Amino acid sequence: MKFCPNCGKDVIKGTFCKECRPPPEIRIKDIKIKLCSDCRSYFYKNQWEKYSDLKNSIKRYVHNKLEHKLNDFEIEVILPKINKKPGKETEFEIKVNKNEVYFLLPAKLIFTRCERCTRRKFGYSEGMLQLRNPRKEIIDFIQSKVKKNRDFSIVEKNPVKAGLNIKFNSKKLLFKLGQELEKRFGGTLKTSSSLTGLNTETSKKFYTLSVYYEPYKFSKGDVIKTDKKLIQVTKPGKQVYGKDLILDRSVSIDLKNKDYEIKKKYKTRVSKVHPEIEVLDPETYQSVEVENKADVKPGEKVKVVLDKGRMYLLD
Question: Is the domain of 17 the same as that of 89?
């Protein structure tokens, strides 16, 4: 049987009896928690993470700092009134219960801005869209995407020959925008990235993204010729949908690495519908038969295209 060296009582386990046992030690590093002043995020394990409940996030942070098993502790966060302006600091206390022994740990909240909010606030650019030969509908599409996402903003816009160079605050959202442009309008899309900096605090490397985009020169309703097909476009995009005027059926084609010709459209009138549909040749004004069928009436205004001396009606 062992005896307590302090009072002489029998000791069943350990060195001291229960009454003389010294209180447990709490070993913990300084508790300094960085919070973003503009969004609900905190700096945890070398990265910014969103939080929904500040006290629960502080508990998570403290558990990670304590050099003991998590189930040994109960933690209560005692927060005073907080000033969230960047540069402000708020001291508070954390009440820790270990085996019915209570400790008050000093802690501090440090308010700053996360990387994303800093970019949005001060116009830092993570990437550039090199937009060439854009139509108004493409400019409107880009502006609508920016307007709908508060995390996505234009930092700078510079007119260049045949287009615009637009700098954005987020390379992730810029990359997504490039994919959406190609999917919706089709055309040429190229991306590249370059190393621009290093965060010495987190060893994180910073890259800027360059996205080159040039849409097809045609739009909905235009007629293109490719691979001996004459197609009136109904939906441009990465996959082009339209009507094959020669075969009189719906088709879809991928124009990547393919040449195409945009056919000129002419305005004219239907001259007769029986026994075959004929229209006035826009150049000679002679009545000529068209190659495809349509529901038209004599005298009706129509649009046509010419290909190898043959005339085709457009929808």
Answer: yes
* C-alpha distances in Å from residue 88, one per residue of 83, 108, 238: 7, 10, 50
Domain containing 235 equals 221-261
* Cβ atoms of 251 and 198 closer than 8 Å: no
Same domain for 104 and 207, yes or no, is no
CB 87 within 8 A of CB 9: no
Domain total in the chain = 4
Answer yes or no: are the C-beta atoms of 235 and 272 closer than 8 Å: no
> pLDDT in tens for each of the 315 residues of the chain?
577 777 777 777 777 677 776 665 555 667 899 999 888 899 988 888 999 999 999 888 887 776 554 456 788 888 888 888 888 999 998 888 877 777 788 899 999 988 777 766 666 788 999 999 999 999 999 999 999 988 888 888 999 999 999 999 888 999 999 999 999 999 999 999 888 766 555 566 777 899 999 999 999 999 999 998 999 999 999 999 999 999 999 999 999 888 999 999 999 999 999 899 999 998 888 999 999 988 999 999 999 999 988 999 998
Asked whether residue 226 falls in the same domain as residue 273, the answer is no
Domain ends where: 50, 80, 115? 115
Last-in-domain residue among 214, 246, 279: 214
